[in-house]
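Saturday, quiet lab. Running sequence design on the structure tokens for the scaffold JK sent over.
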């Protein structure tokens, strides 16, 4: 019996999916194809490559691997950035429709949706995505005003950077009951931790820039769906609007994907140990991490996810203490973004687009794969210096 990708566990898929056919003397890794155009020796037919804005052989193995990893029946679609993928996903909402989005989703997704709403493309409703009753009530109210296919429910769970956890299946079922399309940004969890398509979600979004590529050296995005009509519309949008990926970036992303499971395992276990230590630290006012039993999202995360992710958010005494912490780290890198092998630290409200409901003193930690004790030692010395500065000494 032939081995099927669907028989394989996610950590095996990261390594085994997206390989060239087993032919004698052929490479085991997909090559990079840099050509912008393809030989045409007959009249074009559906599925022909023709021109590299529409298709590139370097995309195929990555798209196959990510589609398989998310448990989709179809290959993923890779985009030039996560936000390029978000623009394509939002294009599924017809003019005059409505989008429901978490108020603490990634700031770029919110800004993009707000920009489109300001242009009159659709209504935008910001919700506390962890407040299931409030989201259900809003969907109910929209049902009376919009037809099937006019509403999109945008999920991000856990949210960036507040790490709120949504009840994915409950919200997805309610959205489908009113004919809404459901998109889930799965950047934080990755398919190693959760597969939203299995909870009924229609389209999964990734900033491939983050955990999937994993080395902070590539900007890419992706969409994944098992619905052929949606994939065709998203592919048409990508080809027409041109937010395509460079072949070299996609090759690097597939190379990064090969170690995703190991990187996630290490990041998650270190994140959990840091979260516990931070929760006991006197200079830390609050730790947000779904893996902590005291976290409001813990039970939901434990019930839905296969892990708690590699991001920890902490709140400090005030903005100055948070900025002092970020300045005092020596191993952690003070930089935006997340999901790379190197640990990053950022006070999110430094970014002007960050929602004002994110606490000013919130510092987001993206936990990499360094030695956990080294990471803790650096955080501890930085916390001591930041808090000591406030108490009049260093
Ligand atoms: C959760 C999430 N979604 C989407 C994006 C956007 O992706 P990109 O930066 O690849 O455009 C980001 C970027 O930080 C993100 O954190």
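Result came back. Writing it out in full:
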């Amino acid at each position: 019996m032939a081995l099927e990708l669907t028989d394989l566990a996610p950590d095996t898929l990261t390594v085994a999916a997206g390989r060239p056919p087993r032919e004698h003397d052929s490479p085991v890794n997909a090559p990079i194809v840099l050509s912008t155009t393809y030989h045409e020796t007959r009249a074009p037919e559906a599925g022909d490559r023709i021109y590299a804005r529409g298709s590139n052989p370097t995309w195929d193995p990555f798209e196959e691997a990510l589609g398989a990893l998310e448990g989709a029946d179809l290959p993923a679609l890779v985009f030039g950035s996560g936000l390029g993928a978000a623009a394509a996903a939002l294009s599924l909402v017809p003019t005059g429709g409505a989008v429901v989005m978490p108020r603490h989703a990634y700031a770029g997704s919110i800004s993009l949706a707000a920009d489109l709403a300001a242009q009159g493309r659709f209504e935008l409703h910001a919700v506390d995505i962890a407040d299931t009753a409030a989201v259900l009530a809003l969907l109910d109210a929209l049902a009376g005003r919009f037809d099937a296919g006019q509403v999109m429910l945008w999920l991000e769970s856990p949210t960036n950077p507040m790490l709120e956890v949504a009840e994915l299946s409950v919200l997805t079922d309610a959205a489908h009951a009113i004919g809404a399309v459901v998109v889930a940004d799965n950047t934080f969890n990755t398919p190693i931790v959760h597969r939203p398509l299995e909870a009924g979600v229609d389209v999964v979004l990734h900033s491939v820039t983050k955990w999937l590529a994993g080395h902070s050296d590539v900007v890419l995005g992706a969409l994944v769906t098992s619905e052929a009509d949606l994939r065709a519309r998203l592919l048409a949008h990508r080809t027409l609007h041109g937010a395509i990926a460079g072949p070299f970036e996609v090759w690097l992303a597939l190379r990064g994907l090969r170690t995703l499971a190991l990187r996630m395992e290490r990041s998650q276990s270190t994140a959990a140990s840091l979260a516990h230590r931070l929760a006991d630290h006197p200079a830390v006012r609050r730790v947000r991490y779904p893996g902590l039993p005291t976290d409001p999202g813990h039970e939901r995360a434990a019930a839905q996810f296969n892990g708690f992710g590699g991001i920890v958010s902490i709140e400090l005494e005030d903005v100055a203490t948070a900025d002092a912490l970020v300045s005092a780290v020596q191993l952690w890198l003070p930089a935006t973004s997340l999901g790379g092998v190197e640990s990053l630290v950022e006070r999110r409200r430094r970014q002007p687009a960050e929602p004002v409901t994110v606490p000013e003193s919130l510092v987001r930690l993206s936990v990499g794969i360094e030695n956990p004790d080294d990471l803790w030692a650096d955080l501890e010395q930085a916390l001591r210096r930041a808090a000591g500065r406030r108490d009049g000494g260093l």
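Notes for JK: The first helix runs from residue 10 to 16. The chain is about 35% helix and 15% strand. Ask whether to fix the surface positions before the next round.
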